[in-house]
Amino acid sequence: MSGEGRDGDGACGDGARGGSGSGGSAREDEPHGGEATGKAREEQPPVPRGRLIAVVGPSGVGKDSVIAGLVAARPDLHRVRRVITRPEGAGGEPFDAVTPERFAQLRDTGRLALWWEAHGYCYGLPARMAAVLQAGGDAVANLSRAALPEAAARFRPLVVLALDADPARLAERLAGRGREDAAAIAGRLSRRAPPPVLAPALAQADAVIALSNDGALGETVAAALAALFPETAGAA
After folding, report:
1. Pick the CATH number of 9-19+48-228 from 3.40.50.300, 2.60.40.10, 3.30.465.10, 4.10.375.10
2. b/e string for 66-82 if b means 16 or more Cβ within 10 A?
3. Which DSSP string corresponds to 152-194?
4. Strand 158-164 to 207-212 pairing
5. Record's Gene3D superfamilies (predicted)?
6. DSSP 204
7. Given CA atoms 223, 213, 79, 204 in this order, what sign does their dihedral have?
8. 3-state helix, strand, coil in the chain (%, to 5)
9. What pLDDT does 24 receive?
């Protein structure tokens, strides 16, 4: 099966992309007196929208652990629960396990905001995530690096929290999960290098926070919180 977010027709559809109708909103017809109405619209304050915080990085870097730490510290931060064609008892993050057939149904009926294929599984973010963002709330999601271009095209503001760690630490963590054999772990480590789409995708993001997760988890979470919520950094 494919590596992280490989484009092309496969079990998850045609690569990392958004749900049906994701290319943009329908054009609104201009009412009579359009010039005055346009000026009135310009004077209105922009509708506040929440940030999509996309946590990305190689396998074993600790994305889910960092997300859990962020949500524990900020209960108002919405954690996006992913839909995955992985067995329910596989461990790791809380997720909704579905069959490939069910995943295709969710995708084809517009109930996934984004989806991609990685490491032989299909991953998706539920479309209901958009309601949180539209209401002004922030949402944090474990996202494939290859899905960032579509995320940047659909959800703004987009904040990318890019994690990395030493290869030896990555290998240790992957082995500790107990989900894969040595060959599978080696395959994941071989894909540690960022995919070609990452650089232009990061350029499109509204903010990029790059952190090393080599040390204590608490230190990484604290650094992420300070960068994401500078207004509360250092507060008692």
Report:
1. 3.40.50.300
2. bbbbbeeeeeebbbbeb
3. HHHSSSEEEEEEE--HHHHHHHHHHHTSS-HHHHHHHHHT-SP
4. parallel
5. P-loop containing nucleotide triphosphate hydrolases
6. H
7. positive
8. 40, 20, 40
9. 34
Mention every residue, 6+ apart, whose C-beta is less than 8 A from residue 87: 97
Does 60 carry a binding-site annotation? yes
Write the CA distances from 82 to 95, 96, 98, 187, 201, integer angstroms.
5, 6, 10, 23, 21
Residues present in the chain in total: 236
Q: How far is CA 90 from CA 65, 170, 176, in A?
A: 16, 19, 13
Domain boundaries, the chain: 9-19+48-228
* Per-residue confidence (pLDDT) for residue 13, from 0 to 100: 63
What is the spatial distance between Cα 223 and Cα 79, in angstroms, rounded to a whole number? 19
**How many CB atoms within 10 Å of residue 50?**
19
Identity of the residue numbered 132: V
59 is in an annotated binding site: yes
- Residue 48, token pair as written in the block: 């506040």
Residue-wise pLDDT tens for the chain (236 aa)? 334 444 344 567 655 566 543 333 322 232 333 333 333 334 444 455 899 999 998 888 899 999 999 999 999 999 999 999 998 876 678 999 999 999 999 999 999 999 999 888 999 999 999 999 999 999 999 999 889 999 999 999 999 999 988 877 777 767 776 666 677 666 665 565 666 667 887 888 999 999 989 889 999 999 999 999 998 866 54
* Residue 144 contacts residue 4 (beta carbons within 8 Å): yes
**Does 65 show up as a binding residue in the annotation?**
no
